[in-house]
Specification:
Elements lengths: L7 H16 L5 E12 L9 E17 L10 E6 L9 E6 L13 H14 L6 E7 L9 H16 L6 H16 L6 H8 L4 E6 L5 E5 L7 E7 L9 H16 L19 H25 L7 H13 L6 H12 L4 E5 L6 E7 L3 H15 L5 E5 L6 E3 L5
Parallel strand pairs: 3-5
Antiparallel strand pairs: 1-2, 1-12, 2-5, 2-6, 3-4, 6-7, 8-10, 8-11, 9-10
Helix pairs in contact: 2-3, 2-4, 3-4, 3-5, 4-5, 6-7, 7-8, 9-10
The protein binds adenosine-5'-diphosphate and magnesium ion.
Length: 403
């Protein structure tokens, strides 16, 4: 069984206490940014297409305190600590300076907060003073639930408020994308940050990645007696890895060959015959996936949550066979969940590892869990981590009182 998730309020209170121990000061505030699950719309974001993620009830919390003018020490130094630390260590600590940041200049996990500072300085002309930061996250790292964006989004909402920048959420989404693309060097799209920033409890976020228009769509799982079970295969994926870039290039090549600026601009019914076989499969996935997102949105708007199951499963088949970004562990997770009664299942996130999701009836949860565990054990795969998630609110400040 996975450990119960501690309520956010008490996590925030602990974080404030811990902050005082680490830095000897009280933080200016605590901010929360959730991870996300992508319900459907995979590898469509960088093709200007549709996605339907939801923010989850697992989040990064940051406590932050800006360095005051005239305080002793270097005014632009950022000190960082995270509770996600190597075995035997209590905290993972790092530091950098807000002045003169350049891509490649900050390594390890500090690259994510530094990337946000870099984006604010370079793209928005903000003067960012030094600060102290303490991070605690319940988003599993590297599971495809966007733990990295949770960190970036928590940092940008904190700085937006403390520096009174008045930026709206789409702007913060673009800036964190810039941070991840240009500073961290991961060519990711706009979906993950948008979900973390704009999610709503009980809803999914229907996002048009071309216009960045977004709309919440009801996803009342509990009312329908349903759950989304995450199956973290614990196979480590890496976006920087060639597979992701190769897929992006295939899509760009396909769009160009079809005379379109992006795959979003390819009219329905266009013949794909002129494409080579591999590019045709890649393009077919993206066009079909956009269509499936629209169909899922239609079902959810009509109140038919269970009806999306087959579309989730069709998405997985397309990712496995046409886009070829699945792996044996993800396929097994999906097959085992379906065989045990899941209404639908698919890999979620970029692929090559990470997590699958299964839409299940609450009464089937134990059976599906046991079936997935059993199937993994039988194949000699590493034991997967299983937990359910609920659609949660996007990032924001947590009010904490302390004395
Ligand atoms: P994911 O799918 O989880 O986003 P990534 O590889 O994109 O996987 O990001 C994981 C990286 O994000 C970690 O290696 C680490 O650098 C950073 N990260 C995420 N959560 C934390 C945390 N709680 N503390 C420190 N670093 C974190
Ligand atoms: Mg990530």
């Amino acid at each position: 069984m996975s450990a119960p998730v501690q309520p956010v309020q008490s996590r925030a209170e602990n974080l404030v206490r811990r902050f005082a121990e680490v830095y000897g000061e009280t933080p200016d505030g605590v901010w929360r940014a959730p991870g996300r699950v992508n319900l459907i719309g995979e590898h469509t974001d960088y093709n200007n297409g549709f996605v339907l993620p939801f923010a989850i009830d697992r989040s990064a919390l940051v406590a932050m305190r800006l360095r005051r003018p005239g305080e002793t020490g270097e005014p632009d130094v950022v000190r960082l600590a995270s509770t996600y630390a190597p075995d035997g260590e209590e905290l993972s600590r790092a530091r950098f300076h807000t002045g003169g940041l350049e891509p490649g200049g900050v390594g390890g996990w500090a690259a994510y907060p530094a990337g946000v500072v870099f984006a604010l300085v370079r793209r928005a002309g903000v003067v960012v003073p030094g600060f102290d930061l303490l991070l605690d996250s319940t988003v599993p790292v590297g599971a495809g639930l966007s733990s990295s964006h949770a960190v970036e989004v928590a940092v940008i909402v904190a700085l937006n408020e403390l520096l009174e920048l008045g930026m709206d959420r789409p702007r913060m989404a673009r800036l964190t994308q810039y941070a991840e693309n240009e500073f961290v060097g991961a060519p990711t799209g706009i979906m993950d940050q948008s979900a973390s920033l704009m999610g709503r409890e009980g809803s999914a976020l229907f996002l048009d990645c071309r216009s960045l228009d977004s709309e919440t769509v009801p996803l009342p799982l509990a009312r329908h007696g349903l759950e989304v079970l995450v199956i973290d295969t614990r196979v480590v994926h890496s976006h920087a890895d060639g597979g992701y870039s190769a897929r992006r290039s295939s899509c760009e090549r396909g769009a160009a060959a079809l005379g379109a600026a992006s795959l979003r601009e390819v009219p329905a019914g266009t013949s794909l015959d002129r494409l080579d076989a591999e590019t045709r499969r890649r393009v077919r996935h993206v066009l079909g996936e956009n269509e499936r997102v629209l169909q899922v949105v239609g079902h959810l708007r009509a109140g038919d949550v269970a009806g999306i199951g087959n579309l989730l499963t069709a998405s997985h088949a397309s990712l496995r066979d046409d886009f070829e970004v699945s792996c044996p562990e993800l396929d097994l997770a999906v097959d085992a969940a379906l065989a045990a009664g899941a209404l639908g299942a698919r890999m979620t996130g970029g692929g090559f590892g990470g997590s699958a999701i299964a839409l299940i009836r609450r009464e089937d949860e134990e059976r599906v869990r046991a079936a997935v565990r059993g199937a993994f054990a039988e194949r000699g795969f590493r034991e997967p981590a299983l937990f359910t998630v609920l659609p949660a609110d996007g990032a924001g400040r947590i009010r904490v009182t302390w004395h």
